[in-house]
Amino acid sequence: xxxxxxxxxxxxxxxxxxxxxxxxxxxxxxxxxxxxxxxxxxxxxxxxxxxxxxxxxxxxxxxxxxxxxxxxxxxxxxxxxxxxxxxxxxxxxxxxxxxxxxxxxxxxxxxxxxxxxxxxxxxxxxxxxxxxxxxxxxxxxxxxxxxxxxxxxxxxxxxxxxxxxxxxxxxxxxxxxxxxxxxxxxxxxxxx
Length: 192
Known about the structure:
Layout: H1 6-25, H2 33-40, H3 44-50, H4 54-61, H5 63-75, H6 94-105, H7 107-114, H8 120-139, H9 152-170, H10 177-188
Helix pairs in contact: 1-2, 1-4, 2-3, 4-8, 5-6, 5-8, 6-10, 8-9, 9-10
């Protein structure tokens, strides 16, 4: 199957849209590939030709969201010295506010994806992309000071895990995105 074929792209678009629609309506654990195929208006065998299982479809359907979260996290200025006028501890940087604004706008999907009945593949993909984005940024010298004795990938994985945890909480609480960003920022830069 050629992924560049417009028919393949249209079918995958329909499957992704159907999955996201169903995930917004019901717990992800109760969504089946047959239900997704029915919602997309195709037969189940065709759905399995495009995706090996529901988790693969979930990961693909949420890929844009994962990319957005990773990009926002990587843009946070963790390496810059902070003074009272630069970036005080009580004001989160805009990329972090953007990250939590995105999560709030898609809270139901994040709740479903990160719940106990959610998608382990999605959770792992989110953590992995965050780790990669942060490690890439750290490798270019944009790393918080004082961690030279910690391998870059370990440092990035630690922060990625923390962010996934905060995202999992943020999508279940009815608080402003700026409040979640502020709390995450305070944890990310505790001594500043």
